[in-house]
Amino acid sequence: MAILDQGVGWGIILGFGAFFAVLMTLLTMAQKRYLQEYQTSEMFMTAHRSVKTGLVASAVVSSWTWAATLLQSSSVAYKYGVSGPFWYASGATIQVLLFAILAIELKRKAPNAHTFLEIIYVRYGKGTHIVFLFFGLATNVIVTAMLLLGGSAVVNALTGVNIIASCFLLPLGVLIYTLFGGLKATFLTDYVHTSVIYIIILSFLFTVYGSSETIGSPQKMYDLLVDVSNRPCDKEKFEIDYPNIAKYPTYGICSVTENEQGSFVTMASLQGLIFGIINIVGNFGTVFVDNAYWQRAIAARPSSTVKAYLIGGLSWFSIPFTLATTMGIAGVALVGAGKLAPLTDDEVSAGLVLPYAATALLGKSGAFAVLILVFMAVTSAASAELIAVSSIYTYDIYRAYIHSGALGRQVIRQSHISVFCFGILMGGLATILNYIKIDLGYMYLLMGIISSPAVIPVAYTITWSKQTAPAAISAALIGVVCGITAWLVTAKSLYQEITIKSTGENYPMLAGNLVSLITSGIIATVVSLFKPDNFDFEVTRTKLEILTDDEVNVNAIHEDPMEKDPVRLRAAFKFAVTSSVVLTIILVLIWPLPMYFSNYVFTKPFFTFWVAISMIWAICATICATIYPVFESRRSIMNVISGISKDLTGQKLTRAEETSNIQTLEEKM
Known about the structure:
Amino acid/polyamine transporter I
């Protein structure tokens, strides 16, 4: 039974979609009028490569905050306890941190690129380019499918709006403002959406651990989780000990069989660790092979690139970690207290722990907050995927194979067409997956099998001069074949059948993900060393060029020569390597593994400390992703406000003010 009226669902999907479409269109017009920011093809696809640290970091957070970030993280918390949120957060943060290395290498070795596939084309030629074109688009399709599957499931569960209608209408507003504003519009909406997401997460945090009558404190949460951990999983005994909860179809919730002492408050969770490994492997593909992250690196100033990805990655960590440590385990506690009916396996896999827990805690206001939260995550990440696919089509299909000399209006026209077409395709694909009963959880575990075989070859393309075209091609193709084979064979061996249920289990997914990534990495390395190349990256520096638009004069863009200083870029590269590697080791080895192998079960004071860490991290991340971008672009914001004020009062901008606006173009928000 839906918690909210259908009218609320339609209002969010259509009303908020229309609001953001109008708002971003007006902001695009304001930037053109007051900051001389014209919509050239370069502006549409790269934001003139001048976006500053705070806004790039906020965009990284937004584009990496999928429906799965909110829903799947809460689901694994419900299934495995506190280890689930940690492994979700750490297992998907390290890729963004390590991507800082590729981002600064992009600035050093291919500063004029529009997509990562352009670099592959220039370095290896058409054959390799076509192979990786498949992997790039497949990654975008998988990510988009997860966004819409998770979003439509939540909208349907909370409001009763038809799932198919949701799949087609959720991207509608995104499609409109992306058509008008291009990449810069996605940055602006990313910022707004990220701000709203953090506000809602903090409100949940303080409700659960501060004002909730059922929970209200970390100590009470701990007591409820320990009580559930002590419950037997034998149905007959459970029905005797807990007759009120046993009336539910799944008869309640009990200890986690493969956790230390069956506890929800321990990192010693075998299935949590397995999920963490799958998460780490799978998310390498959806960062390194997703053009959305390359575009953010392309759009960033060279001096901002490394800092933006490190700040963005560490800020993003707080979203799944804090939200799931709050709402995911709250779902367990609420079931244990008899305030929430136990969820079925299908409901957990569909990502419904978060909305059901929020509704149990806050009633309709909780359901409404989750609806807004998921809408923001789906639409902001979808906008990144739309412009990513558009740039691939424009530069790697249209300009590469159809009209190589296309410039200006032709490029923008093709970009608009591709945005519209992929927006429609998004809805159709999600509809098909819904009909064949493939949900968010299944797609999340599957994604690495398909995308991770391209990870090592893509990383080598920009970092290692010895990789050859045959090595890159064979690594990707053999890797995906071996990964799919390992996945299906493991499912058949363990469960004696190949079905959606058997192939969606942890062990087959683990086998497929690991084989895909490791096989590909070994082949790319060995084949290259057998007959190494000696590629000169000066080719990618000079052969890739910024497009010139004949209909707009873009000479107003001022570049600081220091931004391209080789010495500074080399120093940034060294900093990226050191910082990202050290943080990765901390997040996946030094922090979690001693807690796993020691079989430590949290005490009440340590659990309170754990919750406090999540609170502090979320507050710091909110400052970095929402306040810092505004502070950094304060001068440009004031110029726009001043210009609007003068227009409303009938005054004209002075010559000095127009000059000031042009000079601060690089600080635009």
